[in-house]
Backbone:
């Protein structure tokens, strides 16, 4: 992952480099960690807390703090984000239990089978998600797939295709050259396509049609 | 998947939600403080382990005792004591635990969050003579000794005089961290950003990206949400500073000289103490005080104490002017 605006790269050889930097007290590693995970974990937590922003703030704070303290013991069996999501899920449960807010919020990717697909981005689902869960939920899952891509990929795709930034501008924003930005976008597209196919069992064009685009 | 399909899909799904900026700033500040504390704690553990290895080679019995001492889980470190608790002042140990009302004299521990209600004010006495006043409606996380995170509201720091000025304190805010270099300053979170008013001395403000700004006595730095810093002159006293004096801990008068008491009052009120030409400071140093000013603000204490002496005080501009009382 890249610390935006600096070009400093972390995680090109996996999450271990970021973890080493964090444990060594490297401020750039802290920035990379925060920039890579804060917004994504927040989006993970918010719908599970009925959209309660204050609760999400507490839970994300607790999640990232716990993740940070556990970095030394992170074994890398799963991706760092997947591991952080597991911590976050537990924090959400604890939060709701402590406040006795009634029924546990169950979302699509809290179902075991679908969660595995979303997290591992490996096993394809057999059913048509757009039809079975509705447009809003499918759109949310598309955004969730973006969140589960390696750090910066989701941002780069949004900057390019939603905000209309040029490859040069994306390179500048990340502090890397145009060629490197081009290469990052290419990898992001591949990862996104694979993620979509794993979750939806369909290609982007079909999903877009299902969403009414 | 071609570019058009990708664009169509992303547009139909819409942008991912961005967390509110204030949430991001608050979480970043808390997390950074936690990370710093974690690194410090790791360093101390390594140091202790190093000490253990050395001792093991030298004296097995001593090592046994050391292990017995360090093997138990350490209680949270004391950050300081609550010198003043007026109105609602409470603390909690974590977001899963409930709030607990606090009283003056309570020890404040690392890892706790302290909060004052709409009518509450507090003063913390930290090691090294540092006094931290907590305004109404403030929440502050006591991260570890020497590190606080201002979550909302306002703090005032008086690093004291003499050697106490060297005591270290860092305050994290959503906009960055603040350290003093011997000073009195107020730090307030506003909707528009973080306001730093320096009464005396010097303060260093460091933004998350490492940029540093210094504020000197009589300066106000307004750190806006986008990171810009606006600098302007500020007063060192007046109504906007009154809350600081309201939250001041009472001073122990017993055996104190009048000149020392006046120096304290001047510091609390943000004014220089000036002596009438016919007076020497040694005249006042010869006067030893007895009694208590408990429950009085520094301004009230000044008048109450001087009423028992042959001196008077008058506030004029930046000064508290001390003169011999007219015998008539």
Residues:
């Amino acid at each position: 992952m890249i610390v935006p605006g600096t070009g400093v790269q972390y995680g090109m050889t996996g999450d271990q480099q970021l973890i080493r930097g964090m444990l060594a007290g490297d401020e750039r590693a802290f920035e990379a960690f925060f920039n890579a995970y804060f917004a994504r974990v927040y989006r993970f937590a918010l719908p599970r807390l009925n959209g309660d922003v204050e609760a999400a703030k507490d839970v994300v704070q607790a999640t990232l703090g716990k993740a940070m303290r556990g970095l030394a013991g992170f074994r890398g069996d799963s991706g760092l984000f997947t591991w952080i999501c597991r911590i976050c899920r537990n924090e959400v449960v604890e939060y709701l239990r402590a406040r006795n807010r009634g029924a546990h919020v169950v979302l699509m990717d809290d179902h075991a089978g679908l969660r595995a697909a979303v997290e591992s981005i490996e096993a394809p689902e057999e059913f048509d998600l757009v039809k079975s869960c509705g447009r809003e939920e499918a759109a949310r899952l598309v955004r969730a797939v973006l969140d589960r891509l390696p750090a910066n990929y989701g941002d780069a795709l949004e900057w390019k295709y939603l905000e209309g930034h040029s490859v040069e501008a994306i390179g500048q924003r990340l502090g890397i050259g145009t060629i490197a930005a081009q290469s990052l976008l290419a990898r992001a597209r591949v990862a996104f396509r694979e993620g979509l196919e794993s979750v939806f069992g369909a290609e982007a064009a079909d999903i877009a049609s299902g969403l009414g685009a | 998947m071609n570019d058009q399909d990708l664009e169509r899909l992303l547009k139909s799904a819409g942008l991912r939600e961005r967390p509110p900026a204030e949430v991001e700033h608050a979480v970043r500040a808390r997390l950074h403080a936690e990370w710093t504390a974690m690194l410090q704690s790791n360093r101390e553990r390594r140091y202790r382990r190093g000490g253990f290895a050395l001792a093991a080679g030298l004296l097995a019995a001593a090592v046994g005792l050391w292990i017995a001492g360090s093997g138990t889980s350490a209680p949270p470190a004391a950050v300081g004591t609550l010198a003043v608790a007026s109105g609602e002042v409470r603390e909690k140990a974590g977001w899963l635990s409930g709030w607990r009302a606090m009283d003056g004299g309570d020890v404040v521990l690392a890892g706790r969050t302290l909060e004052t209600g709409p009518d509450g004010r507090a003063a913390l006495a930290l090691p090294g003579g540092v006094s931290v006043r907590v305004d109404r409606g403030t929440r502050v996380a006591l991260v570890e000794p020497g590190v606080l995170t201002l979550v909302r509201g306002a703090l005032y720091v008086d690093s004291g005089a003499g050697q106490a000025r060297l005591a270290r304190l860092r305050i994290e805010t959503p906009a960055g961290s603040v350290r003093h270099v011997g000073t009195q300053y107020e730090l307030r979170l506003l909707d528009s950003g973080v306001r730093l008013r320096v009464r005396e001395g010097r303060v260093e403000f460091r933004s998350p990206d490492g940029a540093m700004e210094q504020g000197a006595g009589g300066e106000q730095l307004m750190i806006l949400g986008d990171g810009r810093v606006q600098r302007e002159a500020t007063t060192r006293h007046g109504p906007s500073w009154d809350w600081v004096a309201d939250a001041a801990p009472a001073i122990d008068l017993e055996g104190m000289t009048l000149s020392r008491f006046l120096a304290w009052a001047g510091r609390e009120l943000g004014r220089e103490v000036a002596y009438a030409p016919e007076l020497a400071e040694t005249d006042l140093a010869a006067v030893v005080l007895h009694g208590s000013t408990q429950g009085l603000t520094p301004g009230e204490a000044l008048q109450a104490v001087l009423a028992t002496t042959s001196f008077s005080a008058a506030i004029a501009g930046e000064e508290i002017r001390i003169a011999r009382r007219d015998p008539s």
User: Anything to note?
Assistant: Chain A has a mean pLDDT of 76. Chain A touches chain B through 49 residues (CB under 8 Å). The longest helix of chain A spans residues 178-200.
